Amino acid sequence: MPLVLATDDDGGPEIFASVQGEGPSAGMPCTFVRLSRCNLACVWCDTAYTWHFEGDDRPHRGGIEFERKANQVTLDEAEVAARITALGQKRLVITGGEPLLQAPALAKLLELLPDVTVEIETNGTTKASATLDIRIDQFNVSPKLAHSGNPAELALLPERLDAYATDPRAWFKFVVAEPSDIDEVLALRDRYRFRRDHVFLMPEGTDSETLRGREKWLAPLCVEHGFRMSDRLHIHLFGDTRGT
Length: 244
Hints:
The chain is an alpha/beta fold. The chain contains nine helices and ten strands. It has helices at about 70, 75-85, 105-110, 130-135, 150-155, 160-165, 180-190, 210-225, 235-240, and strands spanning about 5, 15-20, 30-35, 70-75, 90-95, 115-120, 140, 170-175, 200-205, 230.
């Protein structure tokens, strides 16, 4: 089963080398692979070209619908592995969309890449198959709060959050837009007993001015509640662009 990837600005697969911009691995050099399709629909999603295709009536604040054919490319696992290897990085970040929707193909891909450290960026609603799970070194789990526009019954699945909460490979990254969002994070922390040092709060925003403005009130909240704060380094370095 081939992989369905998002496209870069030139229409090729979005496979690139950069530094990780968020979470516990921020600043580390990595190869990124961005897959297409998502089972959730965040109104502020900055990669809506992976899911908000023509005919999709799920809301997004940009209101733009993307042509599926121009924003998806299908490659077999060997071709993707070759492109990853050519970039020469020892750490691989698989992102989306929701990458775990393509678990069988990902398992086959990672069999071809035995010597890389693998991060999966997931919304926390899906499960890695056993053959994929053994290849993953780090889960970057981003449960979606109410301001994302996703109903809790779709975005916050107790069975999955219980599993991630007990997995030492899992780190939790909450996108925060307003100070009041912290109440929801605290309730989830208490319900699932997330380890505080594995919880990051990250400001929502796709430009430096917005991120810096929100970090001014977010930092004191992190200090107060013992959470870690994540910036979005790639936004400051490259802006809201593909392939960065």
